[in-house]
Amino acid sequence: MGHRNSEQQVLVVPCSGIGKVHGLISREAVYRVTDILMPGRSSTVCLALLVSGDPRTRAKVQQQPCITVDGCPKLCARKNVDLSGGKVALGVRVYDTLKRHHGAQLGSPTALSAAGWVAAEEIAAEIAHTAQQLLAAGKQES
Amino acid sequence: MTGTTKVGIIACSGEEIPAGSLSRLAARRVLELLRPQSTVTLCLPLFLAGEEQERRFARQHPTITVDGCDKLCAKRGTEEHSGQVAASLVVTDILGQRVHKCHRSARELDKSDEEAVWILAERIAAEVDALSQTASAEQAADAPAAASCACACGSPPPEGNLELDGKTATVNWLPSIFDQLYKQNLEPGQGCADRLLETVRIYHEIPEGEEPLYRDALAAAYQEYYDRRAK
Q: Cβ B15–A18 below 8 Å, yes or no?
């Protein structure tokens, strides 16, 4: 990855799409990683701020390995991290994970059901797994 | 509310701060409970990323932006691409110190968050009412200028019909799905069927055992669509 800082964090960026449950799942999966699974070793940025061209947010995205989490095939998070000069180490597509939950009622864009939380946790675990590998690889390089 | 003009609500949904989560929840509260007939929500990342349907909606309808902080990403982005917003609300201005008791994740929501969301949602609803009254008066004076749009999340999505062995299935967003895949250079033929099926499944529940029917119907419908576009 070429990231040399031993205090490196992984940036995890969800789309947070407001129209479907997939957006909320992306958002909650990210908070599970940043707040519970990998606090201090992962963080997030406001996608709208990044898309608006905020220099500090762009710099973060360019300097840290990124994992994006998208709810729909428009891939707003992934595309905007790419466009901002970030390197996407993993692009999670929520709808891929949901194939394993076929027919499950996942909740709404406002609140997740129990099945929705399970899906968010699965995605969070996948993100954390990759994030740990990225950090380990970064340490070996430095 | 007697007007038919929809008001667009654009929340910043900022992921870094609790106020971003509040903006998102309050926008949904207005859409789902307070003013379901007169509002739609627009997806800000999609809007900022250049989605023309969302931008057109914001150009043709009054919009309210709800920003978590004074960086005003939603307001600035909307005004850059679709003209002046009708109202701009900032969560921290409305809630003051109360925002510090709130949380980012839905997992942690408590009474403080719930109260904050209600305060914000009622404030948004009041702006919706004011705008709807104004818009209704303008529509009455200038009826031909009214425009329609079915692009945003809360409005009826564009539908398409599939013929499945003698019965018809209505699939939400089918025209948009075809548009999107066409732009991604998806070629028609049986080779495209899995991709079509995978995408349609996101928006439409495909009953067990009916995948082969859907696969064939989608391939045929996409072929027709492709031929029309190619002319």
A: no
| pLDDT band per the 50, 70, 90 thresholds, residue B156 | very low
- Are B219 and B178 spatial neighbours (Cβ–Cβ below 8 Å)? no
Question: Do B214 and B164 form a contact (C-beta atoms < 8 A)?
Answer: yes
Q: Label residue B209 exposed, middle or buried (CB < 10 Å: 0-12, 13-18, 19+).
A: exposed
Burial of B6 (0-12, 13-18, 19+ CB in 10 A): buried
Amino acid at A88: V
Give the one of B11, B71, B180 whose C-beta lies nearest to A18's C-beta.
B11
Q: Is B16 on the interface with A (CB under 8 A)?
A: yes
Q: Is B168 helix (H, G, I), strand (E, B) or coil?
A: strand
Ranges of each domain in chain A: 10-137
- Residue A46 contacts residue B12 (beta carbons within 8 Å): yes
- ipTM of the assembly? 0.91
Q: What is the pLDDT of residues A50-65, one digit of tens each?
A: 998 899 999 999 999 9
